[in-house]
């Protein structure tokens, strides 16, 4: 899950140009990103959350921290696996590989 969130944020949200993708993928990524932002803002506005502008802005400000957390988690798992530091569930292999 952590790696999926990392990839989603990195490819769709944090890389506005989607530099490693084809033109069709760039177009779909931009549409998806814009729709995600519009839907999330509409959700905040329609549910009566106070100050939806501030809430949405704070959420966008959290993205770099989430990306860093995901990157660090992936690096930590690779270290654990490489040095065989502890026993872990094989589901993590599927998740991080």
Structural write-up:
The chain has 97 residues and is mostly helical. The protein has one domain. 78% of the residues lie in helices and 0% in strands. The chain contains four helices and no strands. It has helices at residues 2-14, 23-46, 52-83, 90-96. Helix 1 (2-14) crosses helix 3 (52-83). The longest helix is centred in the last third of the chain and has 32 residues, at 52-83. The chain is extended, with a radius of gyration of 17 Å. 1% of the residues are buried. Residues 18-83 form the NR LBD domain. InterPro entries: NHR-like_dom_sf (IPR035500), Nucl_hrmn_rcpt_lig-bd (IPR000536).
Q: Key features?
A:
97 residues, mainly alpha, 4 helices, 0% strand, extended, NR LBD domain-containing protein, Nucl_hrmn_rcpt_lig-bd
In short:
With 97 residues, the chain is mainly α. The protein is built from four helices and no strands.
Sheet having the most strands: none
Radius of gyration: 17 Å
Look at the helices and sheets and give the structural class. Answer: mainly alpha
Distance between the termini: 12 Å
Please outline the helices and strands.
Blueprint: H1 2-14, H2 23-46, H3 52-83, H4 90-96
Helix pairs in contact: 1-3, 2-3
